[in-house]
Amino acid sequence: MRICIHRGSKQIGGSCVEIENCDQRLLVDFGLPLDAEENHSQYLPQISGLDGSDPSLLGVLISHPHLDHFGLLAHISPKIPVAMGAAARRILGAAVPFLPGNWPIPSGGWNYQSGKRFNIGPFCVTPFLVDHSAYDAYALLIESSGKRIFYSGDFRSHGRRATLFERLTENPPQNIDMLLLEGSSLGRLADSQQFPTEKEIENQLVQIFSSTEGLLLVHTSSQNIDRIVSIFRASKRTGRKVIIDLYTAAILEATGNANLPQSAWSDVALYVPQTQRLQIKNNAWFDLLKRHSTNRIFIEDIKHLSNRATLLFRPLHRFDLERGECLSDAIYIYSQWEGYWEQGAYDMVKDWLERYSIPKLSTHTSGHASPSELKNLVKMLSPRKIVPIHSFFPEKYPELFPKVEAHNDGEWWEI
Ligand SMILES: [Zn+2]
């Protein structure tokens, strides 16, 4: 078996690995670099058969629905099958119509079931559901000709699905020849430090919520389902209703998980911002709107609810909230990666907060394993070799783990 990291040996984002055996090939992840600019096709790795003309390219395995792992799929032939979780596939299908630009809806292909092996040509794949900030995320065991590669994907053990990590550690796959290990936290967190747990985030939110007089504007990703649950639980504990928009309602529905907050729940309300109303009209999404309208409210209801509501804020809400005069004593809580804020992605929100003198607070935890969580995975898998991927600091691996073998982007090697 031969393997090549096309992108990701020295960076976070844009992950893509190619595995070859018996003249057949598989790709593992097909991500967009985090710093990608316009014209995404310029980031396509040099891989033959992306146009669907080479049957030796059997398919693409996507670990989870984050853009830096699947974002280039729009630029390959739809004839190439794509493997991923069934819920992840539904989430992408639900999200794409709302997003600007050319985002991919993956072609058909294999749907993962955690722990269930399946064959693709000479390869045998076993997906393992993991705890991550993306819903329906997997680590992947790939076997061929007696060799075994374990691809960690992105994972953690401090989220709401930490038991998945425990389950994996209790019964780990044996005889791993090579572990491709993500290292997002290296260089960002000291080796001995831990990220807060998602439960701790919920408790921090409870403290903020209970001392706020006005409307809460909580800004997070609608696809970070763990965080939405934390916001929902904190709201429930402080007597607040959670107000979602149609995009979030569609994503929550697409999880197919009736235990997660849904638009029809009595402590959830749907508010459709003006820009989304236009989108609905232009695209005739009337069935979708109707399906989520059980608890629909309007801007005057938000003003009236005020300190009994938490709005899952998106920048497009600004104009509605101004017009509806909903902002007295409001607090804005930024609850996602600080990097987006620091890089200026939300400068329009920053200016708006200043204009209305709305205080900004932040609370967040990482979707990635801390160095000690990474060590736990290494200890339980006890792989023959560890290859750095998805890290800006591959040179730190040998300080933390045994048997590290670093490879460069574009370099092929034999297992
Ligand atoms: Zn991820």
Structure description:
The chain has 415 residues and is α/β, with parallel strands linked by helices. It has 14 helices and 20 strands. The chain has helices spanning 67-70, 86-95, 162-170, 198-210, 225-237, 246-254, 274-283, 286-291, 299-305, 318-323, 338-342, 347-355, 371-381, 397-400; strands at 2-7, 16-21, 24-30, 57-61, 82-85, 111-112, 118-120, 123-130, 137-144, 147-151, 178-182, 216-219, 241-244, 268-271, 296-297, 309-313, 331-334, 360-362, 385-389, 412-414. It is globular. The protein starts with a strand and ends with a strand. The model has no long low-confidence stretch (mean pLDDT 96). It binds zinc ion. Zinc ion (ZN) binds at residues 64, 66, 69, 132, 134, 154, 367.
Secondary-structure map:
Elements: E1 2-7, E2 16-21, E3 24-30, E4 57-61, H1 67-70, E5 82-85, H2 86-95, E6 111-112, E7 118-120, E8 123-130, E9 137-144, E10 147-151, H3 162-170, E11 178-182, H4 198-210, E12 216-219, H5 225-237, E13 241-244, H6 246-254, E14 268-271, H7 274-283, H8 286-291, E15 296-297, H9 299-305, E16 309-313, H10 318-323, E17 331-334, H11 338-342, H12 347-355, E18 360-362, H13 371-381, E19 385-389, H14 397-400, E20 412-414
Parallel strand pairs: 3-4, 4-5, 5-6, 10-11, 11-19, 12-16, 12-17, 13-14, 13-16, 14-15, 17-18
Antiparallel strand pairs: 1-2, 1-20, 2-3, 7-8, 8-9, 9-10
The structure holds zinc ion.
